[in-house]
């Protein structure tokens, strides 16, 4: 009986440890411009995938947040390749922003499923251990990337406007789970 209890305790511990790792980003930052590109490169990161809505630009807006273009230029200067990986379905929305930043893009990524991340890594020419995902949604951007073994950075959403499911389901769940990083910056 004791052996069964020990096995059960080990399984439960492993389950919660796995959940903890999947739900926790490696780093957090107030916004994309606050992320240290040189530090990402020092961690072995060669490619960065970025979410679009509330990470690079307000939801459904063609304008990017201040500092994003300069950060992309700095990332390129540090030797990082970048691309947009978004669940947005409209290339007409994503293309102007991606073109203004001179980076490739993936639409209809269906995050947190693996396909969109893999398409982004193919564009970047990177493997999971040398790729970072930067986004504002714990339940899409971070969980999916963590499951694939990518380095993850969770940024604060920069706009209060967002899709109804995000506002009514995902954000309340994020508050329950917490947005704390695994690693100290």
Fold and architecture overview:
The protein has 185 residues and is an alpha/beta fold. The protein has a single domain, classed as Rossmann fold (3-Layer(aba) Sandwich). 46% of the residues lie in helices and 13% in strands. It has seven helices and six strands. The protein has helices at residues 2-23, 37-42, 68-77, 91-101, 114-124, 138-148, 164-177; strands spanning 27-29, 47-50, 81-85, 105-106, 131-135, 151-155. Strands 1-6-5-2-3-4 form a six-stranded parallel beta sheet, with helices on both faces. Strand 2 (47-50), helix 3 and strand 3 form a beta-alpha-beta unit. The longest helix has 22 residues, at 2-23. It is globular and about 60 Å long. The termini are far apart. The mean pLDDT is 86.
Total separate domains: 1
Order of helices and strands: HEHEHEHEHEHEH
Q: Would you state the CATH class?
A: Alpha Beta
The strand line-up of the biggest sheet is 1-6-5-2-3-4
Distance between the termini: 44 Å
- Percent of residues in helices: 40-55%
Shape type? globular
In a few lines, what is going on in this structure?
By secondary structure, the protein is an alpha/beta fold.
Index terms:
Rossmann fold; six-stranded parallel beta sheet; globular; alpha/beta; 6 strands; single chain; 185 residues
Task: Please give the structural blueprint.
Layout (H helix, E strand, L loop, with lengths): L1 H22 L3 E3 L7 H6 L4 E4 L17 H10 L3 E5 L5 H11 L3 E2 L7 H11 L6 E5 L2 H11 L2 E5 L8 H14 L8
Parallel strand pairs: 1-6, 2-3, 2-5, 3-4, 5-6
């Amino acid at each position: 009986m004791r052996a069964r209890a020990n096995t059960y305790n080990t399984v439960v511990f492993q389950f919660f440890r796995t959940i903890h790792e999947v739900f926790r980003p490696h780093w957090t930052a107030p916004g994309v411009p606050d992320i240290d590109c040189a530090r990402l490169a020092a961690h072995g990161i060669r490619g960065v995938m970025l979410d679009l809505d509330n990470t690079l630009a307000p939801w459904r807006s063609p304008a990017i947040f201040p500092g994003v273009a300069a950060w992309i230029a700095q990332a390129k200067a540090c030797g990082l390749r970048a691309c947009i990986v978004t669940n947005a379905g409209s290339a007409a929305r994503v293309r102007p922003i991606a073109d203004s930043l001179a980076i490739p893009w993936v639409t209809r990524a269906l995050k947190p499923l693996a396909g969109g991340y893999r398409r982004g890594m193919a564009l970047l020419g990177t493997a999971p251990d040398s790729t970072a995902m930067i986004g504002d949604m714990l339940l899409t951007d971070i969980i999916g990337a963590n499951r694939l073994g990518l380095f993850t950075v969770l940024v604060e959403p920069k706009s209060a406007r967002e899709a109804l499911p995000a506002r009514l389901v995902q954000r309340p769940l994020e508050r329950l789970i917490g947005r704390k990083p695994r690693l100290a910056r």
